[in-house]
């Protein structure tokens, strides 16, 4: 049994990445709250939104433009950066390490890290497809698919994926795996 320590929350927090980085597929973007301008829904996001701070939004906009619909189906690797400051405190935060759809070279984006202080932030390319040309299926989607099959709950899982704008290759994967077990 895997032991986890998860806070009850509707958003991803830096502490969720203590075990290491995770790669997600963007399902969509919607208006956020006064605290964070946008909520980014993630296919593998377990129903929780990612609420990127302004600096990470600027990285996304530099990479993919400012039309949220373009972001759907693209992938992002997030990690906990223990050096992120909030005022005088250093609580850590979520940063982007890799993005799909940026070509084969790292992307450098100037961002503000403190009032009056700007630094170049570098994001590495995340392959758009596997070496064989097939789309990549995350370990989370594989595990959730296996669980849905084991619990005879594939239809509900497919509904969840469709409601969260899962890319076609993920829907195809679930259907293929479910068909293989019948």
UniProtKB/TrEMBL annotation:
Protein name: Uncharacterized protein
Domain of life (superkingdom): Bacteria
């Amino acid at each position: 049994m895997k032991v986890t320590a998860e806070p009850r929350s509707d958003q991803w927090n830096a502490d969720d990445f203590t075990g290491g980085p995770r790669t997600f597929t963007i399902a969509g973007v919607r208006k956020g709250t006064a605290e964070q301008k946008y909520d980014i829904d993630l296919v593998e996001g377990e129903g929780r939104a990612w609420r990127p701070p302004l600096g990470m939004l600027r990285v996304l906009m530099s990479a993919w433009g400012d039309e949220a619909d373009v972001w759907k189906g693209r992938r992002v690797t997030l990690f906990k950066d223990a050096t992120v400051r909030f005022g005088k405190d250093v609580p850590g935060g979520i940063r982007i390490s890799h993005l799909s759809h940026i070509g084969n070279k790292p992307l450098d984006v100037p961002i503000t890290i403190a009032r009056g202080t700007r630094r170049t932030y570098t994001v590495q390319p995340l392959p758009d497809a596997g070496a064989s040309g097939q789309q990549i299926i995350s370990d989370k989607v594989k595990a959730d698919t296996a669980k849905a099959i084991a619990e005879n709950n594939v239809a509900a899982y497919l509904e969840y994926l469709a409601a969260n704008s899962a890319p076609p290759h993920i829907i195809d994967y679930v259907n293929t795996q479910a068909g293989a077990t019948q």
